[in-house]
Amino acid sequence: MNATSRRDFLGLAQNAVAAAAMGAIAVHFVEGAEAMPVAPDPRNAGKRSDLVTEAQWGPGWGPPPRRRRRRWVCWWRRGRRVCGWRWV
Questions:
Q1: Can you give the residue range of the structural domain that contains 2?
Q2: Domain total for the chain?
Q3: Band (85; pLDDT cuts 50, 70, 90)
Q4: 83 domain-assigned
């Protein structure tokens, strides 16, 4: 029987890490697939609209975007007063 070398062990370790990474990625795909809506019987669906859900879009709720402008202001930095243009 051949003695295993460091190179063989490193190759085995790299394959194990790659397999673990692929498994983690596959778990994310499975979770995403479970969240997708599926037609009750896709083989007998007559129209494409039976298989596809229409996207919902529109203006988002929340505060309106803040308009920023530059102002000349003064502030304290390291015990000294510094003045300059700042975005407010």
A1: 1-40
A2: 1
A3: very high
A4: no
